[in-house]
Amino acid sequence: MSNNRIVTTELPEADILAAFGELNLRHGQLEHELKFTIQSLTGVGILEALRATERCGPKELRERILKLAKKRFGDGRVFIKLSSNLGISRRFTDKRNAYVHTVVGRILDGEYVMKNAEHIFEPLPKVSEIKDLAAKIEEITLQLRKERMGGEFAEALVSTSNV
C-alpha cells in the first residue's frame, strides 16, 4: 500500500475497537500471571511481589522469571518447559505490540489502516485475527497458571522449597 496518502485520526468501527480491548485485557491477565510466577519462585507475599513488579513490563518479567527459575531448578525439564511457555508468550506479546503500539487511522478514501514495522500503512487486521490472538494469549496464560498451581512447576517448587 502506498505510504503517501493522507491518513486521518478517525478510529475504526466498534467491533474492531472491542477486539483490541479484549486483546489488551487478555494481555494484562498474562502480565499478572507472570507476576504471580515471580511470587511463586521467590516465596514472597502476593502484595509484595505485585509491588516489586508494578513498573515491570512483560519482557523484564520474563527475564526475571528465567533467572529465578534457572537458579532454583537448574537446566532440567521444568526450566525447559517454563522457558518454552515464556517463549510462546513472548511471540504473542510481540504480535500484540505490533497491533497496539502503532498509528491507526483512516485513509481519506475510506480504508482503515495501521503502520507496520517498516512504517508502511497496511489494512487493519480482521476482528477474527485479533480475537484469535486474544484467545492464544488466554491459552498460554492458563497454561502458565496450570503449571504454577498444579503441574511439574508446582511440584518442583515444593521439592526445592528449602533450597
What can you see in these coordinates?
The longest helix has 29 residues, at 14-42. This protein has one domain (16-97, 127-159). Strand 3 (112-115) and strand 4 form a beta hairpin. It has a 4-stranded antiparallel beta sheet with strand order 1-2-3-4, with no helix packed on it. The mean pLDDT is 93. It has 6 helices and 4 strands. It is elongated, with a radius of gyration of 19 Å. It has 163 residues and is α+β, with helices and mostly antiparallel strands. It starts with 6 loop residues before the first strand and ends with a helix. Helices cover 66% and strands 8% of the residues.
> Which sequence of strands runs across the widest sheet?
1-2-3-4
Question: What is the helix fraction of residues, given as a range?
Answer: 55-70%
Distance between the termini: 57 Å
Major sheet size, sense and barrel closure: 4 strands, antiparallel
**Order of helical and strand elements:** EHHHHEEEHH
Structural class: alpha+beta
Separate helix tally: 6
What is the strand content?
A: 5-15%
- Stretches where pLDDT is under 50 for at least 5 consecutive residues are none
Number of domains: 1
Average pLDDT works out at 93
The 3D shape can be described as: elongated
Please give the number of β-strands: 4
Q: Give me the Rg, rounded.
A: 19 Å
